[in-house]
Specification:
By secondary structure, the chain is an alpha+beta fold. Helix content is 60%, strand content 8%.
């Protein structure tokens, strides 16, 4: 361990001791010989001062810890509502670095003299934060731009802190049963990915280009133009946006802004990002949206984004339909299907709690998420359910967008925008053509399995001959087990046979697939299904 690491570790330990978190972690390097009792640890975790103490400690420890706190503030399902609310107060501000340092970074990154690279460059920053600061400049061709510059050495400081934080997380996970429930090592892995994306400005530039492509042909939505030739992982040059802040638009009585129209644009564009593009702004708070002339909405700060694959989008669409219909059984089944709930969750009591939640909204048309969505997440959290990061980021983003829209148009019905696209996605999921197409892709895997089967059987037989393979079977009603084996072998034979038929590339097609292959697969599926049903009836 080098001197710098030892010094920083000492600073972190002193801060943890100052705010009482050395005890909460349990057996640290200092107290492993006298471990903290579980009940004492539990009492400390229930301390009402813990949220504030945690925020003050993270603020004191600087950039990396502030960023961790900001991430945790978006995960009430992990840290609890009180801690998440308190951590949302963390301030990511820092004194600006000198212009001389900015000039050095610009010239080193862009490989040129700052006076030749830019027609004009403001020495005073427009904004500053712990990781970087923003300056206004003018390109040689006359374009007015905003330049985000990463502070020197910040990446090394973050990596140093991350290594120490991961060590502390592993220690806490090992020795404190209460902390273990949170899965701190998993949280740290997520944080590692998030913060490295944030400090890679070229990643943000690529996000901007993707957003720009997604909204091409929609003049009511704008994304700042990015300048790749003037950007690197530590310098990001983009169009300077001169627009109105949302807070000013809220209070304005000017005819310049059509608030209902703006609310429509904002909600519609965000649901497009989630359900159509699967690529959405991860932090759409009012400061990250500006209003330009002619009621154009501009999205800013695209360093944090969420990505949803096709399956997740469709599952989410079904979930929201069930939510709006207050279908509790359907909701729970959908959560199980999405692997959000597992066998450890008491679904009977969970159903009762969700019924109580919806009971408070009995007779009320659900035309907005505000309140009930947050309460649903709190109910899930009470059952120690750790939600997928994409789900939490999406839910948080929807809540922010809804709040913005309601400030602009208090009568807006959010579900009007969701239901058509959600139902369309759910309908596409049941499309036979798409189903068969997905199965066609699976046949490649089946073919590989079939080709590797002789080698696998040969290796298995050799192990049996050498006595290296041991079978341990507990038999209960041997007749039932035999039937299951026969059923399994029958099903396997049908699947493999159908897979081979599907490799035929001649003859008539059905849904872009060989007709006889498709028929063979469908018949195989029907026969297997019928056999299973008959077996279940007999059992």
């Amino acid at each position: 361990m080098d001197k710098e690491t030892i010094k920083r570790l000492g600073e972190i330990r002193r801060a943890m001791k100052k705010y009482g978190f050395d005890k909460i972690l349990g057996q640290t390097a200092r107290n492993r010989l006298s471990p903290l009792r579980d009940e004492e640890s539990s009492e400390l975790l229930l301390d009402n001062e813990i949220p504030e103490k945690l925020r003050l400690m993270l603020q004191e420890l600087g950039t990396t810890f502030i960023k961790l706190g900001q991430l945790l503030s978006t995960r009430p399902d992990v840290v609890g509502e009180k801690i998440a609310t308190e951590l949302a107060k963390l301030q990511d501000d820092n004194p600006a670095v000198s212009f001389e340092e900015v000039k050095e970074i610009i010239e080193e990154e862009l490989k040129g003299d700052i006076n030749k690279l830019f027609k004009d460059f403001s020495k005073e920053p427009l904004a500053t934060a712990s990781i970087g600061q923003v300056h206004e400049a003018v390109l040689p061709e006359g374009e007015r731009v905003a330049i985000k510059i990463q502070k020197k050495g910040i990446s090394d400081k973050i990596d140093l802190d991350l290594n120490i934080m991961k060590f502390i997380a592993m220690e806490a996970d090992k020795f404190n049963p209460q902390i273990k429930k949170i899965n701190l090592p998993g949280v740290m892995d997520e944080f590692d990915r998030t913060i490295h994306k944030e400090i890679d400005y070229f990643n943000e530039l690529m996000n901007m280009k993707r957003f720009e492509a997604n909204f091409e042909g929609q003049p009511n939505i704008h994304v700042p133009i990015s300048y790749e030739d003037y950007s690197t992982p530590k310098v990001l040059t983009m169009e300077f946006i001169a627009g109105a802040k949302l807070s000013d638009v809220y209070e304005s009585d000017s005819q310049e802004y059509d608030k209902k129209l703006l609310a429509d644009y904002i909600v519609r564009s965000y649901f497009q990002q989630i359900f159509i593009d699967g690529f959405f702004h991860g932090d759409p708070h009012p400061g990250n949206l500006m209003i330009l002339e002619e009621n154009v909405v501009c999205y800013l700060d695209l360093g944090m984004v969420g990505v949803l694959n096709e399956d997740f989008k469709r599952n989410l669409a079904e979930l929201l339909i069930l939510f709006s219909d207050k279908d509790i059984d359907g909701l729970i089944n959908q959560f199980i299907y999405m692997e959000i709930l597992d066998d450890s969750v008491d679904t009977k009591n969970l159903k009762r709690d969700i019924e109580d939640l919806f009971g408070r909204y009995f007779g009320v048309k659900l035309n907005h998420f505000n309140g009930i969505l947050d309460e649903l997440l709190s109910v899930m959290q009470s059952y120690n359910v750790i939600l997928p990061n994409e789900f939490v980021t999406m839910a948080r983003g929807v809540s922010m967008i809804e709040a913005i829209a309601q400030n602009l148009d208090p009568e807006i019905d959010v579900f009007i925008y969701i239901q058509p696209v959600a139902k369309q996605l759910a309908k596409e999921k049941m499309n036979p053509k798409k189903f068969l197409k997905n199965k066609k892709n699976s046949f490649i895997m089946y073919e590989h399995m079939l080709k590797s089967l002789p080698k696998l059987l040969s290796r298995t037989m050799r192990k049996i001959e050498r006595g290296e393979l041991i079978f341990k079977i507990e038999v209960d009603r041997i007749d039932k087990m035999t039937n299951k084996i026969v059923l399994f072998l029958f099903a396997s034979a049908l699947i493999i046979g159908s897979s081979l038929v599907m490799t035929i590339d001649k003859g008539p097609l059905l849904f872009d697939m060989p007709l006889f292959g498709a028929i063979g697969f469908i018949l195989s599926f029907i026969i297997v299904l019928y056999t299973i049903i008959q077996y279940m009836i007999k059992v």
